[in-house]
Amino acid sequence: MPLKTVISIVGARPNFMKVAPLHKAFQQYANSIRHLIVHTGQHYDEAMSKAFFDDLELPHPDFYLGVGSGTHAEQTARIMIEFEKVLGEVRPDLVIVVGDVNSTVACSLVSVKLGVPVAHVEAGLRSGDRSMPEEINRLLTDTIADYLFVSEPSGVANLVKEGVGAKKIHLVGNVMIDSLVHYRRKAGQSQVMEKLGVRAREFTLVTLHRPSNVDTLQGLDKILSIFERVSPRTTVLFPLHPRTKKMIDQYGLSGRIGSIKNLKLTEPLGYLDFLRLLDNAQLVLTDSGGLQEETTYLGVPCLTLRENTERPITCEIGTNELCGLDVDKIVRKSFEVYDGHAKPGRIPELWDGNAAQRIAGIILKKL
Ligand code: UD1
Protein backbone atom coordinates (compact mmCIF):
# COMPACT_ATOMS: atom_id res chain seq x y z
CA MET A 1 0.00 0.00 0.00
CA PRO A 2 1.33 3.50 -0.76
CA LEU A 3 2.54 5.39 2.30
CA LYS A 4 -0.38 7.06 4.10
CA THR A 5 -0.02 10.12 6.31
CA VAL A 6 -1.76 10.37 9.68
CA ILE A 7 -1.59 13.50 11.84
CA SER A 8 -2.29 13.35 15.58
CA ILE A 9 -3.15 16.52 17.46
CA VAL A 10 -1.92 17.42 20.93
CA GLY A 11 -2.70 20.70 22.63
CA ALA A 12 -3.22 20.49 26.36
CA ARG A 13 -1.65 18.47 29.14
CA PRO A 14 -4.14 15.57 29.14
CA ASN A 15 -3.52 14.94 25.42
CA PHE A 16 0.12 13.95 25.63
CA MET A 17 -0.33 10.62 27.45
CA LYS A 18 -3.05 9.67 24.96
CA VAL A 19 -1.04 10.34 21.81
CA ALA A 20 2.21 8.76 23.10
CA PRO A 21 0.92 5.16 22.86
CA LEU A 22 -0.64 5.87 19.46
CA HIS A 23 2.70 7.14 18.22
CA LYS A 24 4.41 3.97 19.44
CA ALA A 25 1.74 1.78 17.84
CA PHE A 26 2.09 3.52 14.46
CA GLN A 27 5.87 3.10 14.52
CA GLN A 28 5.31 -0.63 13.99
CA TYR A 29 3.62 0.18 10.69
CA ALA A 30 6.24 2.67 9.55
CA ASN A 31 6.28 1.09 6.07
CA SER A 32 2.61 1.91 5.53
CA ILE A 33 1.91 4.89 7.77
CA ARG A 34 3.81 8.12 8.31
CA HIS A 35 2.67 9.47 11.69
CA LEU A 36 3.10 13.19 12.35
CA ILE A 37 2.39 15.14 15.53
CA VAL A 38 0.96 18.65 15.57
CA HIS A 39 1.15 20.56 18.88
CA THR A 40 -1.26 23.49 18.90
CA GLY A 41 0.48 25.19 21.84
CA GLN A 42 -2.75 25.48 23.86
CA HIS A 43 -0.57 24.57 26.84
CA TYR A 44 2.90 26.04 26.56
CA ASP A 45 4.55 26.21 30.03
CA GLU A 46 7.52 23.88 30.33
CA ALA A 47 5.79 22.06 33.21
CA MET A 48 2.50 21.72 31.31
CA SER A 49 3.97 20.60 28.01
CA LYS A 50 7.69 19.93 27.40
CA ALA A 51 8.09 17.86 30.58
CA PHE A 52 5.49 15.47 29.17
CA PHE A 53 7.20 15.10 25.81
CA ASP A 54 10.37 14.13 27.66
CA ASP A 55 8.73 11.74 30.13
CA LEU A 56 6.60 10.05 27.47
CA GLU A 57 9.48 9.83 24.96
CA LEU A 58 7.49 11.72 22.35
CA PRO A 59 9.49 13.15 19.44
CA HIS A 60 9.53 16.89 18.82
CA PRO A 61 6.21 17.83 17.25
CA ASP A 62 6.42 18.07 13.46
CA PHE A 63 4.44 21.32 13.65
CA TYR A 64 4.11 23.69 16.63
CA LEU A 65 1.30 26.20 16.21
CA GLY A 66 2.08 28.33 19.27
CA VAL A 67 -1.49 29.55 19.84
CA GLY A 68 -1.28 30.03 23.65
CA SER A 69 -4.09 31.14 25.96
CA GLY A 70 -7.07 33.39 25.30
CA THR A 71 -10.84 33.39 25.45
CA HIS A 72 -12.48 30.26 24.06
CA ALA A 73 -13.25 32.00 20.77
CA GLU A 74 -9.75 33.44 20.44
CA GLN A 75 -8.01 30.18 21.28
CA THR A 76 -10.26 28.01 19.09
CA ALA A 77 -10.06 30.44 16.18
CA ARG A 78 -6.28 30.74 16.35
CA ILE A 79 -5.91 26.97 16.34
CA MET A 80 -8.20 26.72 13.31
CA ILE A 81 -6.34 29.36 11.33
CA GLU A 82 -2.93 27.85 12.04
CA PHE A 83 -3.98 24.22 11.55
CA GLU A 84 -5.59 24.98 8.19
CA LYS A 85 -2.14 26.05 6.96
CA VAL A 86 -0.67 22.70 8.06
CA LEU A 87 -3.36 20.78 6.18
CA GLY A 88 -2.65 22.88 3.10
CA GLU A 89 0.97 21.81 3.28
CA VAL A 90 0.64 18.15 4.27
CA ARG A 91 -2.74 16.83 2.95
CA PRO A 92 -2.91 13.86 5.38
CA ASP A 93 -5.14 10.83 4.88
CA LEU A 94 -6.46 11.06 8.43
CA VAL A 95 -6.38 13.41 11.42
CA ILE A 96 -6.59 11.93 14.91
CA VAL A 97 -7.90 14.07 17.76
CA VAL A 98 -8.05 12.93 21.40
CA GLY A 99 -10.07 13.97 24.43
CA ASP A 100 -12.23 17.05 24.75
CA VAL A 101 -10.11 20.19 24.81
CA ASN A 102 -10.41 23.21 22.53
CA SER A 103 -7.64 21.85 20.29
CA THR A 104 -9.76 18.70 19.73
CA VAL A 105 -12.82 20.47 18.34
CA ALA A 106 -10.86 23.15 16.47
CA CYS A 107 -8.75 20.69 14.48
CA SER A 108 -11.72 18.39 13.80
CA LEU A 109 -13.67 21.23 12.27
CA VAL A 110 -10.82 22.37 10.06
CA SER A 111 -10.17 18.81 8.84
CA VAL A 112 -13.71 17.86 7.88
CA LYS A 113 -14.21 21.16 6.03
CA LEU A 114 -11.17 20.29 3.91
CA GLY A 115 -12.44 16.76 3.31
CA VAL A 116 -9.87 15.09 5.57
CA PRO A 117 -11.36 12.21 7.63
CA VAL A 118 -11.19 12.55 11.41
CA ALA A 119 -10.79 9.89 14.09
CA HIS A 120 -11.80 10.83 17.64
CA VAL A 121 -10.13 8.88 20.42
CA GLU A 122 -12.15 8.94 23.67
CA ALA A 123 -15.40 9.46 21.79
CA GLY A 124 -18.91 9.16 23.22
CA LEU A 125 -18.22 10.33 26.77
CA ARG A 126 -21.02 12.59 28.03
CA SER A 127 -21.48 14.36 31.35
CA GLY A 128 -24.87 15.73 30.29
CA ASP A 129 -23.67 19.11 31.54
CA ARG A 130 -23.54 21.63 28.72
CA SER A 131 -22.13 24.35 30.95
CA MET A 132 -18.77 22.51 30.70
CA PRO A 133 -16.75 23.65 27.70
CA GLU A 134 -15.49 20.08 27.35
CA GLU A 135 -19.03 18.72 26.89
CA ILE A 136 -19.58 21.08 23.95
CA ASN A 137 -16.23 20.02 22.50
CA ARG A 138 -17.18 16.34 22.83
CA LEU A 139 -20.62 16.73 21.25
CA LEU A 140 -19.36 18.72 18.28
CA THR A 141 -16.32 16.53 17.63
CA ASP A 142 -18.33 13.30 17.70
CA THR A 143 -20.97 14.74 15.36
CA ILE A 144 -18.44 15.37 12.60
CA ALA A 145 -15.80 12.66 13.15
CA ASP A 146 -15.65 9.62 10.86
CA TYR A 147 -14.16 7.09 13.28
CA LEU A 148 -15.19 7.03 16.92
CA PHE A 149 -12.88 5.15 19.28
CA VAL A 150 -14.57 4.59 22.63
CA SER A 151 -13.05 3.81 26.04
CA GLU A 152 -16.05 2.50 28.02
CA PRO A 153 -19.50 1.03 27.22
CA SER A 154 -21.42 4.20 28.22
CA GLY A 155 -19.72 5.94 25.28
CA VAL A 156 -21.16 3.43 22.81
CA ALA A 157 -24.64 3.80 24.33
CA ASN A 158 -24.44 7.63 24.14
CA LEU A 159 -23.40 7.60 20.48
CA VAL A 160 -26.11 5.11 19.52
CA LYS A 161 -28.69 7.26 21.33
CA GLU A 162 -27.48 10.26 19.33
CA GLY A 163 -28.08 8.34 16.09
CA VAL A 164 -24.48 7.53 15.14
CA GLY A 165 -24.21 4.52 12.82
CA ALA A 166 -22.76 1.39 14.45
CA LYS A 167 -20.08 1.08 11.75
CA LYS A 168 -18.37 4.26 12.96
CA ILE A 169 -18.15 3.12 16.60
CA HIS A 170 -15.27 1.04 17.93
CA LEU A 171 -15.02 0.08 21.61
CA VAL A 172 -11.25 -0.21 21.99
CA GLY A 173 -10.41 0.63 25.62
CA ASN A 174 -8.43 3.45 27.10
CA VAL A 175 -5.24 4.85 25.56
CA MET A 176 -4.43 6.86 28.69
CA ILE A 177 -4.30 3.58 30.61
CA ASP A 178 -1.88 2.31 27.92
CA SER A 179 0.58 4.99 29.03
CA LEU A 180 0.01 4.20 32.68
CA VAL A 181 0.65 0.48 32.13
CA HIS A 182 3.73 1.22 30.04
CA TYR A 183 5.33 3.74 32.42
CA ARG A 184 4.24 2.48 35.84
CA ARG A 185 7.46 0.61 36.55
CA LYS A 186 9.64 3.52 35.35
CA ALA A 187 7.60 5.92 37.48
CA GLY A 188 8.51 3.74 40.47
CA GLN A 189 12.06 5.06 40.15
CA SER A 190 11.02 8.70 40.48
CA GLN A 191 12.41 10.37 43.60
CA VAL A 192 9.46 12.71 43.97
CA MET A 193 8.16 11.26 47.25
CA GLU A 194 11.59 11.57 48.85
CA LYS A 195 11.93 15.12 47.52
CA LEU A 196 8.55 16.15 48.88
CA GLY A 197 9.00 14.23 52.11
CA VAL A 198 5.85 12.07 51.87
CA ARG A 199 5.42 8.38 52.57
CA ALA A 200 3.29 5.78 50.79
CA ARG A 201 -0.42 5.79 51.82
CA GLU A 202 0.12 8.72 54.18
CA PHE A 203 -0.91 11.55 51.87
CA THR A 204 -3.92 12.85 49.97
CA LEU A 205 -3.17 13.97 46.43
CA VAL A 206 -5.28 16.87 45.14
CA THR A 207 -5.71 18.33 41.65
CA LEU A 208 -8.31 21.01 40.93
CA HIS A 209 -8.57 23.25 37.89
CA ARG A 210 -12.18 23.28 36.62
CA PRO A 211 -13.53 26.81 36.22
CA SER A 212 -16.68 25.72 38.12
CA ASN A 213 -14.53 24.97 41.20
CA VAL A 214 -11.63 27.40 41.10
CA ASP A 215 -12.88 30.49 39.30
CA THR A 216 -15.11 31.69 42.16
CA LEU A 217 -14.23 32.84 45.66
CA GLN A 218 -17.02 30.65 47.04
CA GLY A 219 -15.57 27.55 45.37
CA LEU A 220 -12.02 28.24 46.53
CA ASP A 221 -13.25 28.98 50.05
CA LYS A 222 -14.89 25.54 50.22
CA ILE A 223 -11.78 23.86 48.88
CA LEU A 224 -9.62 25.51 51.55
CA SER A 225 -12.14 24.46 54.23
CA ILE A 226 -11.76 20.85 53.09
CA PHE A 227 -7.97 21.12 53.39
CA GLU A 228 -8.28 22.70 56.85
CA ARG A 229 -10.49 19.86 58.06
CA VAL A 230 -8.66 16.83 56.59
CA SER A 231 -5.08 17.99 57.08
CA PRO A 232 -4.90 16.99 60.76
CA ARG A 233 -5.32 13.38 59.52
CA THR A 234 -3.15 13.40 56.37
CA THR A 235 -0.56 15.32 54.39
CA VAL A 236 -2.35 17.19 51.62
CA LEU A 237 -0.27 17.39 48.45
CA PHE A 238 -1.55 19.92 45.93
CA PRO A 239 0.28 20.50 42.63
CA LEU A 240 -1.14 23.79 41.39
CA HIS A 241 -2.50 24.13 37.86
CA PRO A 242 -1.63 27.60 36.44
CA ARG A 243 -5.30 28.53 36.31
CA THR A 244 -5.82 27.60 39.99
CA LYS A 245 -2.69 29.44 41.07
CA LYS A 246 -3.84 32.55 39.24
CA MET A 247 -7.25 32.47 40.93
CA ILE A 248 -5.81 31.87 44.43
CA ASP A 249 -3.59 34.92 43.98
CA GLN A 250 -6.41 36.98 42.49
CA TYR A 251 -8.73 36.31 45.44
CA GLY A 252 -5.96 37.04 47.96
CA LEU A 253 -6.04 33.51 49.42
CA SER A 254 -2.29 32.77 49.35
CA GLY A 255 -1.89 33.68 53.04
CA ARG A 256 -4.71 31.40 54.17
CA ILE A 257 -3.59 28.45 52.08
CA GLY A 258 0.03 28.98 53.16
CA SER A 259 -0.97 28.77 56.83
CA ILE A 260 -2.53 25.29 56.59
CA LYS A 261 -0.23 22.87 58.37
CA ASN A 262 0.38 19.61 56.55
CA LEU A 263 -0.45 21.16 53.18
CA LYS A 264 2.29 21.04 50.56
CA LEU A 265 1.88 23.11 47.42
CA THR A 266 3.98 22.27 44.38
CA GLU A 267 4.37 23.37 40.79
CA PRO A 268 2.61 21.18 38.19
CA LEU A 269 4.52 17.88 38.07
CA GLY A 270 5.76 15.79 35.17
CA TYR A 271 4.10 12.54 34.12
CA LEU A 272 6.42 10.07 35.87
CA ASP A 273 6.60 12.00 39.15
CA PHE A 274 2.85 12.38 39.21
CA LEU A 275 2.26 8.71 38.42
CA ARG A 276 4.49 7.68 41.32
CA LEU A 277 2.45 9.89 43.66
CA LEU A 278 -0.81 8.57 42.29
CA ASP A 279 0.28 4.98 42.75
CA ASN A 280 1.18 5.65 46.38
CA ALA A 281 -1.59 8.01 47.48
CA GLN A 282 -3.95 7.12 50.27
CA LEU A 283 -6.71 9.15 48.63
CA VAL A 284 -7.14 11.40 45.60
CA LEU A 285 -9.37 14.48 45.51
CA THR A 286 -9.83 15.80 41.99
CA ASP A 287 -12.01 17.42 39.36
CA SER A 288 -9.97 15.99 36.48
CA GLY A 289 -11.45 13.52 34.00
CA GLY A 290 -8.34 11.44 33.50
CA LEU A 291 -7.57 11.01 37.19
CA GLN A 292 -10.92 9.36 37.78
CA GLU A 293 -9.79 6.67 35.32
CA GLU A 294 -6.21 6.37 36.52
CA THR A 295 -7.27 5.90 40.16
CA THR A 296 -9.79 3.27 39.12
CA TYR A 297 -7.06 1.38 37.29
CA LEU A 298 -4.68 1.65 40.26
CA GLY A 299 -7.34 0.83 42.86
CA VAL A 300 -6.71 4.12 44.68
CA PRO A 301 -9.76 5.73 46.34
CA CYS A 302 -10.92 8.85 44.48
CA LEU A 303 -13.45 11.53 45.45
CA THR A 304 -14.44 13.66 42.47
CA LEU A 305 -15.39 17.24 43.28
CA ARG A 306 -18.00 17.48 40.54
CA GLU A 307 -21.75 16.90 40.30
CA ASN A 308 -21.46 14.63 37.27
CA THR A 309 -18.98 12.57 35.33
CA GLU A 310 -18.60 11.65 31.67
CA ARG A 311 -16.78 8.53 32.86
CA PRO A 312 -19.53 6.69 34.81
CA ILE A 313 -17.73 3.34 34.76
CA THR A 314 -15.26 4.74 37.31
CA CYS A 315 -18.18 5.11 39.76
CA GLU A 316 -20.11 1.99 38.74
CA ILE A 317 -17.24 -0.48 39.11
CA GLY A 318 -14.22 1.65 40.00
CA THR A 319 -13.00 3.40 43.13
CA ASN A 320 -14.48 6.80 42.23
CA GLU A 321 -17.31 8.64 44.02
CA LEU A 322 -18.95 11.91 43.02
CA CYS A 323 -19.16 14.48 45.81
CA GLY A 324 -19.78 17.85 44.14
CA LEU A 325 -18.38 20.62 46.32
CA ASP A 326 -20.21 19.32 49.39
CA VAL A 327 -17.61 20.02 52.09
CA ASP A 328 -19.19 17.84 54.82
CA LYS A 329 -19.59 14.89 52.47
CA ILE A 330 -16.02 15.15 51.20
CA VAL A 331 -14.58 15.35 54.71
CA ARG A 332 -16.74 12.43 55.90
CA LYS A 333 -15.80 10.25 52.90
CA SER A 334 -12.13 11.17 53.30
CA PHE A 335 -12.18 10.12 56.95
CA GLU A 336 -13.78 6.79 55.94
CA VAL A 337 -10.79 6.19 53.68
CA TYR A 338 -8.28 7.23 56.39
CA ASP A 339 -10.10 4.80 58.74
CA GLY A 340 -9.60 1.95 56.24
CA HIS A 341 -13.12 1.83 54.79
CA ALA A 342 -12.48 2.75 51.16
CA LYS A 343 -14.90 1.77 48.40
CA PRO A 344 -13.48 -1.27 46.59
CA GLY A 345 -13.18 -1.25 42.78
CA ARG A 346 -12.36 -3.28 39.68
CA ILE A 347 -10.57 -2.49 36.41
CA PRO A 348 -12.94 -2.01 33.43
CA GLU A 349 -12.72 -4.36 30.47
CA LEU A 350 -10.24 -3.47 27.71
CA TRP A 351 -8.23 -1.19 30.00
CA ASP A 352 -5.27 -3.46 29.45
CA GLY A 353 -2.49 -1.39 27.89
CA ASN A 354 -3.34 -2.38 24.30
CA ALA A 355 -5.96 0.17 23.22
CA ALA A 356 -3.57 2.07 20.92
CA GLN A 357 -2.62 -1.19 19.20
CA ARG A 358 -6.27 -1.90 18.52
CA ILE A 359 -6.81 1.62 17.17
CA ALA A 360 -3.75 1.48 14.90
CA GLY A 361 -4.87 -1.92 13.58
CA ILE A 362 -8.34 -0.61 12.71
CA ILE A 363 -6.95 2.53 11.07
CA LEU A 364 -4.50 0.52 9.00
CA LYS A 365 -7.36 -1.58 7.63
CA LYS A 366 -9.58 1.46 6.92
CA LEU A 367 -6.85 3.36 5.08
C1 UD1 B 1 -7.64 22.90 29.52
C2 UD1 B 1 -8.86 22.16 28.96
C3 UD1 B 1 -9.41 21.22 30.02
C4 UD1 B 1 -8.34 20.31 30.56
C5 UD1 B 1 -7.17 21.15 31.07
C6 UD1 B 1 -6.06 20.30 31.59
C7 UD1 B 1 -10.29 23.35 27.33
C8 UD1 B 1 -11.55 24.07 27.17
N1 UD1 B 1 -9.93 23.06 28.61
O1 UD1 B 1 -8.10 23.71 30.60
O2 UD1 B 1 -10.44 20.42 29.45
O3 UD1 B 1 -8.87 19.52 31.61
O4 UD1 B 1 -6.70 21.95 29.98
O5 UD1 B 1 -5.03 21.08 32.11
O6 UD1 B 1 -9.63 23.03 26.37
N2 UD1 B 1 -1.94 28.60 31.50
C9 UD1 B 1 -0.60 28.79 31.75
N3 UD1 B 1 0.29 27.97 31.13
C10 UD1 B 1 -0.07 26.99 30.26
C11 UD1 B 1 -1.45 26.82 30.01
C12 UD1 B 1 -2.37 27.61 30.63
O7 UD1 B 1 -0.23 29.64 32.50
O8 UD1 B 1 0.79 26.28 29.75
C13 UD1 B 1 -2.94 29.44 32.20
C14 UD1 B 1 -3.35 30.65 31.41
O9 UD1 B 1 -3.50 31.68 32.32
C15 UD1 B 1 -4.69 30.27 30.84
C16 UD1 B 1 -5.24 29.33 31.90
O10 UD1 B 1 -4.10 28.68 32.45
O11 UD1 B 1 -5.49 31.35 30.61
C17 UD1 B 1 -6.19 28.30 31.37
O12 UD1 B 1 -5.63 27.58 30.28
P1 UD1 B 1 -6.58 26.96 29.12
O13 UD1 B 1 -5.78 26.19 28.14
O14 UD1 B 1 -7.47 28.01 28.60
O15 UD1 B 1 -7.54 25.99 29.93
P2 UD1 B 1 -7.26 24.96 31.13
O16 UD1 B 1 -7.93 25.47 32.34
O17 UD1 B 1 -5.82 24.60 31.22
Q: What would a concise description of this structure say?
A:
The chain folds into two domains: 4-174 and 351-366, Rossmann fold (3-Layer(aba) Sandwich), CATH 3.40.50.2000; 185-338, Rossmann fold. It contains 17 helices and 13 strands. The protein has helices spanning 13-27, 50-55, 72-90, 102-113, 133-144, 153-161, 175-187, 192-196, 211-214, 217-230, 242-250, 254-258, 271-280, 290-298, 313-316, 327-338, 355-366; strands at residues 4-10, 33-39, 63-64, 94-98, 118-123, 147-150, 169-171, 203-207, 235-239, 263-266, 283-286, 302-304, 320-322.
Would you give an account of this structure?
It is a single chain. With 367 residues, the chain is α/β, with parallel strands linked by helices. It has two domains: 4-174 and 351-366, Glycogen Phosphorylase B (Rossmann fold, 3-Layer(aba) Sandwich); 185-338, Glycogen Phosphorylase B (Rossmann fold, 3-Layer(aba) Sandwich), CATH 3.40.50.2000. The protein has helices at 13-27, 50-55, 72-90, 102-113, 133-144, 153-161, 175-187, 192-196, 211-214, 217-230, 242-250, 254-258, 271-280, 290-298, 313-316, 327-338, 355-366; strands at residues 4-10, 33-39, 63-64, 94-98, 118-123, 147-150, 169-171, 203-207, 235-239, 263-266, 283-286, 302-304, 320-322. It starts with a strand and ends with a helix. The mean pLDDT is 97. The site of uridine-diphosphate-N-acetylglucosamine has 19 residues, from α1, α5 and α11.
